From TrEMBL:
Subunit relationships: Homotetramer; dimer of dimers.
Organism of derivation: Pseudoalteromonas translucida (strain TAC 125)
Family named by the database record: Belongs to the DapA family.
Gene3D superfamilies the UniProt entry points to: Aldolase class I (3.20.20.70)
Annotated keywords: Amino-acid biosynthesis, Cytoplasm, Diaminopimelate biosynthesis, Lyase, Lysine biosynthesis, Schiff base
Active site: Y138 (proton donor/acceptor), K166 (schiff-base intermediate with substrate)
Location(s), subcellular: Cytoplasm
UniProt name for this protein: 4-hydroxy-tetrahydrodipicolinate synthase
Gene it is expressed from: dapA
Length: 294
């Protein structure tokens, strides 16, 4: 049975990493523990995003992960990522997940093709129409090569299944343009480091990478940001966050979680590899700084 949650009650969505054993298989025991940690911090959970290496998994693996977490029935809402560039496949994925006890979808911009207003409106509208759950659109031009046009947001803003937008362009002006175009849309920062700025501009919360390594501390920082009480921690936070993005996400955060003893392996699916991170001093220093908050 699906648990009912008010999604607006959750200011942190953790883009959960996918833990692997050293041989590359999914480590379900560690996954169970990670889900429990996020639930204990009252962080909602996003599965199979880019931080979760969703597109490096087979369809059967994706299905198994979502089913496993659903069976755990954590006391926080679950969001499942929808990403790629084949609309037929994405529609089939949404239909599959519609029958599971999840609570939301993250709808990513189509990759590689670089569609404009009309193409993106059709893409998102097709997914929104078939979804049985509230949806968060995902603007991430660093991965999709193009922004979601403001006109596309305007076209979709009245859709009954459109609930939120994850803004990860790193551009405050883009955030403001979306907010003006769709004032009733909940907008979440997709950049950990920018959360204080986005909070001042009216963000509802954060879809976070850092919360994997620091569940409680990230939750606290987001709450402080939203209430305007972050200044004494901002310098520490900014420096710590920068250490998690020295190479492609989720390499640093998985290496750090392995050093923390929370992952049995820092294995990543190719083309990503922990060997890209040639030194760990920065993430270890960041870890010591952030953990000193509690």
């Amino acid at each position: 049975m699906i648990k009912n949650f008010n999604l607006d009650d959750y200011s942190v969505w953790t883009a959960l990493v996918t833990p692997f054993n050293q041989n590359g298989t999914i480590d379900y025991g560690t996954l169970t523990t990670l889900v429990a940690e996020q639930a204990a911090a009252n962080n909602a959970i996003l599965l199979l995003g880019s931080t979760g290496e969703g597109l490096a998994l087979t369809l059967k693996e994706q299905q198994a992960i979502v089913e496993h977490v659903c069976q755990l029935s954590p006391n926080v809402p679950l969001m499942v990522a929808v990403g790629g560039m084949n609309l037929k496949q994405q529609l089939a994925w949404v239909e599959y997940c519609n029958h599971l006890p999840i609570h939301s979808f993250l709808l990513g911009s189509p990759l590689y093709a670089k569609p404009g207003v009309i193409g993106q409106t059709h893409w998102f509208e097709s997914l929104l129409n078939i979804s049985k759950h509230p949806c968060m659109l995902y603007n991430v031009p660093g991965r999709s090569a193009v922004d979601i046009p403001v006109a596309t947001i305007q076209n979709l803003q009245q859709h009954k299944n459109l609930w939120a937008l994850k803004e990860a362009s790193g551009n405050i002006a883009q955030f403001e343009a979306y907010r003006q175009a769709a004032p009733n849309l909940a907008i979440f920062s997709g950049d950990d480091a920018l959360m204080p700025y986005f909070a001042q501009a009216g963000a509802k919360g954060l879809v976070s990478v850092a919360a994997n390594a620091w569940p409680l501390q990230t939750h606290e920082f987001v709450q402080r940001s939203l209430s305007g009480q972050y200044p004494n921690l901002f310098t520490q936070w900014s420096s710590a966050i920068s250490s998690l993005f020295t190479v492609a996400n989720p390499i640093p955060v998985k290496v750090l979680m392995h050093l923390q003893g929370r992952l049995t392996s820092s294995y990543l699916r190719p083309p990503l590899t922990h060997l890209e991170l040639t030194q760990t001093t920065c993430i270890e220093q960041a870890n010591n700084t952030i953990l000193s908050w509690h």
